[in-house]
Amino acid sequence: MSTTRNVDYVGMFKIAGILSVLLVLGSITGLFTKGLNYGVDFRGGVEVQVKFSNKVELGELRSYLDEKNVPVSQMQSIGDDAQNEFLFKLETDEGADLNAISNQVQTVLAEKYGADKFEILKNDIVGPKAGAELRTSAFKAVIWAILAIMIYLALRFDYKFAPGAIAALLHDVIIIVGAFIFTQKEFSLQIVAALLAIIGYSVNDTVVIYDRVREIEAANPTMPTIQVINRAINETMSRTIITSATVLGVSLVMLFWGGAVIHDFFFAMTIGVILGVYSTIFIAVPMTVVFEKLTAKKA
Fold this sequence. Notes:
Blueprint: H1 13-33, E1 37-38, H2 40-43, E2 45-52, H3 58-67, E3 72-78, E4 85-90, H4 98-113, E5 118-126, H5 128-156, H6 162-183, E6 186-187, H7 189-219, H8 225-257, H9 260-298
Parallel strand pairs: 1-6
Antiparallel strand pairs: 2-4, 2-5, 3-4
């Protein structure tokens, strides 16, 4: 494959590295100072989705529930206004009767709007202990996914390629988590699903370039590693742009017009697609050069 491009991507590694370190450190700092806004899945509580037969104003509904001392932490309208659907998220103290709180919502709504004027579409109840267990399991799933990918890359390619890919994946995951920390968007099981999807997408992009690096090395055994990497990135850039633009376009459409239920999922996906391309080009592949130099010094 021939190409007229000759961009020195490895030469940009220092600037990109500084930017990435700042973003990662900021995300980690935010985790300890501000913390994640865990959803009902992870912190425990009650989540109720209600559909009304008649038009109901969000502000009026919120005021009424506050007046009745219903512990609603978040309330949002779902879909178009004409759908009259609302999602309530109720925070509870440890040891609280979650079923009683769920029933309280139905009771106070029936008092004001009539029992036949609304329908409970969803009623999720998660205890604090179960939420903590789900939180632990979710983070373990992300860690195991990264470890499995590291083993796969070490077996498929040379071991020198694995550290760069893992650094890129950790980089992407930490910065996405940081975005949720600083926006205080709800971090739930669907966001963990988005992280796992992003890990798969990012490593796929990395493998394509690694394949090209291996082909160029085999055809040009005396070519310097930096030149090999720059050539591989330049030759696969058109494929990267087309694939990423397609995925990003779909993600943006769903982010802005997909509705509140999937908004946060595609918020994570949008950031992840952008970071996946960035980290593959400026973190994963150039890290191969760094790792090669370190092993050469030790030798």
